[in-house]
Amino acid sequence: DQQVKQNSPSLSVQEGRISILNCDYTNSMFDYFLWYKKYPAEGPTFLISISSIKDKNEDGRFTVFLNKSAKHLSLHIVPSQPGDSAVYFCAASENRDDKIIFGKGTRLHILP
Amino acid sequence: GAVVSQHPSWVICKSGTSVKIECRSLDFQATTMFWYRQFPKQSLMLMATSNEGSKATYEQGVEKDKFLINHASLTLSTLTVTSAHPEDSSFYICSASPLRNRRYNEQFFGPGTRLTVL
Known about the structure:
The complex is a heterodimer.
Chain A: E1 4-5, E2 10-14, E3 19-25, E4 30-38, E5 45-51, E6 56-59, E7 62-67, E8 72-77, E9 86-94, E10 101-102, E11 106-111
Parallel strand pairs in A: 2-11
Antiparallel strand pairs in A: 1-3, 3-8, 4-5, 4-9, 6-7, 7-8, 9-10, 9-11
Chain B: E1 4-7, E2 10-13, E3 19-25, E4 30-38, E5 44-51, E6 57-58, E7 67-73, E8 76-81, E9 90-98, E10 108-109, E11 113-117
Parallel strand pairs in B: 2-11
Antiparallel strand pairs in B: 1-3, 3-8, 4-5, 4-9, 5-6, 7-8, 9-10, 9-11
């Protein structure tokens, strides 16, 4: 049973436009959410995170929104740049545990 | 920044042999290291959590006798795939959690090791 779901395997966005990546989770005990970016044949790199006590966190071009009642979070990238083309993983963890549970990832293509 | 290295980056081996993958935190001490496995177009699957000086904690469904993990120091963890078979071919990634000044859930990932078993 997948606790973290990214239902869109891929997404194509025009350069300069907004990219919105979505993520749903099923475990109500999750209290910390993270987004990672991954290039092929490389390990993931941390992008941005949000605690369950917040509903929004912003860092430069990246903003993560959390809707706890819907068990849904999204990552907004604006404006999208060619270097943003990568696989984005949504991840979550519980307070009592260091483990991070990853979604399957969404491949983002930024079109020129 | 915190850097994690893995060695080798790519290994090809014959079926039945054992392969050791090293994970090192280069500029920080890591109390905890994690081992993940990624299949094509799949998520990162946590295999085990290793704490320095103690036995690793394996996730459900991961064979501890097949995937031997040793965390001998605060900067080194090793994963040994014993008697490898073609179905063990995968991308193995480690991550390390800093010992001090640690933000919640902070993990730094290595670049991964591509294992191909013939």
